[in-house]
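hey can u check if this looks right to u? its 135 residues, i copy pasted from the old doc so theres a chance i mangled smth
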Amino acid sequence: MIGVIDTDGDCAEWTFPAEPGAVRSARAVVRGQLHGWDLDCVADLAALLVSELVTNSLRYATGPIGVRLVRPAGGDDSLLVEVSDPLPDPPREREARPEDESGRGLQLLAGSSRRWGTRPGAGGKTVWFELAVPR
């Protein structure tokens, strides 16, 4: 996985080919893993935001797309989600016009997550976000 940071806690990760079915597959595994961790309360939002990031990766990058979920140890009230691809350029927020059919994904990410960012890796970049997990 590109740009992975070691983190204590439960971790699940997958790699998808850069094909249109990757978005659907990524949503499904995220929902399934979060259900297994008893985190259904954030599963729909996490799956939606992963969909946006995987779609961006498909649109602009070629090569494998990585998805990683981390539930920090110690009863932390957060979930860390990472999407990696081989394109080194960070995503750019843009102002979508009302008639635009795309361009709102990063705004959705910024407005729905506790925090988010990007980090470069040796072979690309990782876009990450953190969701608050209700106790």
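Residues 1-6 have pLDDT under 50 and may be disordered.
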